[in-house]
Specification:
It is a single chain. This protein is an all-alpha fold and 336 residues long. It has helices at 2-20, 22-43, 50-72, 82-108, 111-118, 121-132, 139-156, 169-200, 205-227, 237-262, 266-273, 276-288, 294-329.
């Protein structure tokens, strides 16, 4: 009985601890989902065109989003203003192009290296916020951008900087993939500004995802029809992988949104979310037997360090604001 009574409080403490850190746990699972999605895309390289994978991915994401909006009674039609509609479609269009470029890059280079490059988007959010939102651009932001670019050069290893690299067909495709990943990273940073503006307007997150899914379904479908680049997905593993990509993406998007909402300190979520890069490398090694080289691995570490630098800067900025607010609220002593 005593042993049983001793176990109950321990189980309760464990449940309480998990509940208190549910946001961080959700971010951890979301990172696994993001990593699994990237490796699944890599598996379809020889089976389906990139445009078709992007279209079907967004089609499944839209289906799950419509189901959520139905049960949450979210209004789908944009009725507030022309600015809201413009921002919703801008986020959808730029986000769709970014995903297409990411999938093209994954088809032609290591998925782990692509994730590392794209994950550097927060570093460049500052410059877009400076241009569009007129926010201040600090010296540390510029330094982190330079560090990020250095990491990208280490990942790409262009022949004009690395004489040992030969510019053959595979190397050309890898350089094109790096360029696509960099453009996708910049577009992701820009879409973060659109999402922030929509947040200022009080737009529901489900609504943003719905318009994102709409653009992601229509644009690749039109591009595929124009390019006549459509293939009927064969039965079995290919169709299962497509459904898995859509499901993992929806779960990852939902879990990271929940993590940011449930966690009081979003920068901890960002740190845990960065684990999707080593998760992708591990899954790629286990499933595909692919591992990055030493120099490319060093470049990935440099890129991740620049992102963690953004997290530390944000953490210090939030702490400084809290201290200033505390000093402002403190009672002023009057001389007698």
């Amino acid at each position: 009985m005593e042993e049983g009574n001793g176990r109950v409080p321990a189980i309760k403490r464990l449940k309480t601890s998990i509940f208190d850190h549910r946001g961080l746990f959700a971010a951890f699972v979301a990172s696994l989902c993001f990593a699994g999605q990237s490796v699944c895309v890599k598996l379809l390289k020889d089976s389906l065109p990139v445009i078709e994978v992007v279209c079907l991915r967004f089609l499944l994401q839209g289906f799950f989003s419509v189901m959520v909006s139905f049960f949450s009674e979210t209004t789908i039609i944009s009725t507030n203003s022309m600015k809201e509609t413009l921002l919703l479609f801008s986020r959808g269009i730029f986000g769709t192009v970014a995903i297409g470029l990411i999938y093209f890059a994954v088809y032609n280079m290591s998925a782990g290296m692509v994730n590392a490059i794209v994950f550097g988007a927060p570093v460049f959010v500052g410059i877009f916020a400076w241009i569009i939102l007129r926010e201040r651009l600090y010296i540390c932001d510029v330094c982190l951008m330079v560090i990020n670019i250095l990491g990208i050069f280490l990942i790409a290893q262009p022949p004009f900087l690395f004489p040992t690299e030969t510019l053959d067909t595979d190397k050309k495709m890898e350089l094109f993939a790096v360029a696509a990943a960099v453009i996708a990273m910049l577009l992701s940073a820009l879409t973060s500004i659109f999402i922030r503006l929509l947040g200022f307007m009080g737009i529901n997150a489900v609504k943003i995802v719905l318009y994102y899914s709409l653009c992601g379904t229509v644009l690749p479908a039109l591009a595929g029809c124009i390019m006549q680049d459509w293939v009927l997905p064969p039965c079995g593993q290919v169709r299962f992988t497509l459904v898995l990509i859509g499901l993992l993406n929806f779960l990852a998007q939902s879990l990271i949104s929940f993590a940011l909402a449930a966690s009081k300190q979003s920068y901890f979520v960002s740190v845990i979310n960065s684990s999707q890069v080593p998760f992708t490398i591990f899954l790629e090694l286990i499933i595909l037997g692919v591992a990055p080289g030493l120099i490319s691995g060093a470049g990935m570490v440099v890129v991740l360090l620049s992102v963690l630098g953004v997290v530390v800067r944000e953490m210090m900025f939030v702490r400084k604001k809290k201290e200033e607010a505390h000093e402002t609220d403190a009672p002023v002593e009057e001389d007698c």
